[in-house]
Design goal:
One of its GO terms (biological process) is positive regulation of transcription by RNA polymerase II. Residues 13-22 have a biased composition (Basic residues). By secondary structure, the protein is of the alpha+beta class. It contains four helices and six strands. It has helices at 9-20, 39-50, 69-78, 97-104; strands at residues 25-26, 35-36, 55-56, 65-66, 85-86, 93-94.
Length: 105
């Protein structure tokens, strides 16, 4: 099952700008107009349509999987550092500020 839209408004706008600048790689999924200047970025994007997540965290009992290798590596790093950010409401701790901000929303 393929998802038609996998990007945000910001990513769709960026793709529109790339089309104007001659991006070479277009998404083959029907109804998706995303374009890319690099083939590797197109591959990651196509995996997002199909929910394919080939990059799995190597930490025992974690099992999280990712579309892109760099996201998996960034996640694995979280297992090695202490949380620096805490929610004032529930005291849950986070390693990254963006994760705390998402939690607060």
């Amino acid at each position: 099952v393929l998802k038609q839209n996998v990007g945000s408004t910001r990513t769709r706008s960026a793709s529109r700008n790339r089309r104007r600048q001659g991006a070479k790689y277009g998404c083959p999924v029907s109804g998706c107009e995303s374009t890319f200047t690099r083939h590797v970025n197109l591959n990651g994007h196509v995996r997002a349509h199909s929910d394919e997540r080939p990059f799995v965290c190597r930490w025992t009992a974690c099992g999280k999987a990712f579309v892109r290798l760099h996201n998996c590596k960034r996640h694995e790093h979280l297992h090695t550092i202490d949380p620096s950010f805490a929610c004032n409401g529930c005291r849950k701790e986070f390693v990254r500020l963006d994760a705390l901000n998402r939690h607060r929303e």
